[in-house]
Write a sequence for this structure.
């Protein structure tokens, strides 16, 4: 199992409010968590860093070899719920942090399967033999309009409310978490990213950038392309491949 990752503040933002962590267990199980903070420079930085720490700590403390699939799902649900409580309580206790929050996408890969939990518009994709498939569904205003058929895919690309998300860690006392369990084959590559990548690099470009199998270069290349295309947001990329 190979993991490469990179985060970058982009060309416009003064600070990087994204955060991520990755890890590997002895039985060739890998995990990753990616967060994109919001709520002003200080609040966004704190929310994403705190959520990543809480989720990482929970995974490292709770994971056991040969866990049942349902137990992995429950572990991720508990980890993201714990992060929500921590971020919400900190925001509630400090007026200057009120309203801060963060997106999250988190994955555990084991035995040709990926277990993915998310809230917000940070995404998980699977690439396989020249195709790309978005696994997560954005929790965003634009996605809601798209799902209801009120706007087209083309309109969604440039919608003025594209940055408005409908679900995030730390914004409310309770959080609803979406969960996906997918099969992977030997040629599959899992990509986790913030919208600093997905808003600036097309699916076709992602496929092209990752087509030569040089896994060690994928994260650097994707971040570079996002910056070449404007780099208007913080960019974080984690790539997991066999």
């Amino acid at each position: 199992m190979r993991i490469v990752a990179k985060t970058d503040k982009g060309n416009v933002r003064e600070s990087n409010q994204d955060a991520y962590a990755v890890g590997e267990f002895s039985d060739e199980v890998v995990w990753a968590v990616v967060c994109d903070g919001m709520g002003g420079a200080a609040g966004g930085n704190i929310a994403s860093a705190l959520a990543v720490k809480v989720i990482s700590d929970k995974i490292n403390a709770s994971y056991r070899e040969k866990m049942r699939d349902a137990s992995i799902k429950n572990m991720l649900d508990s980890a993201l719920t714990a992060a929500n409580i921590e971020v919400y309580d900190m925001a509630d206790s400090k007026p200057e942090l009120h309203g801060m929050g963060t997106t999250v996408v988190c994955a555990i890969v084991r035995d040709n399967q990926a277990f993915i939990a998310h809230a917000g518009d940070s995404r998980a994709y699977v690439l396989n033999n020249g195709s790309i498939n978005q696994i997560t569904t954005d929790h965003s205003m634009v996605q809601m309009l798209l799902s209801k058929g009120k706007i087209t895919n083309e309109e969604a690309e440039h919608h003025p409310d594209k940055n408005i998300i409908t679900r995030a860690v730390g914004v409310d006392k309770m959080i609803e978490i979406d969960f996906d369990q997918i099969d992977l084959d030997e040629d599959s590559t899992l990509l986790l990213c913030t919208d600093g990548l997905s808003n600036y690099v097309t699916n076709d470009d992602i496929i092209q950038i990752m087509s030569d199998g040089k896994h060690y270069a994928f994260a650097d290349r994707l971040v570079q392309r996002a910056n070449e295309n404007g780099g208007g947001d913080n960019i974080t990329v984690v790539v997991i491949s066999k």
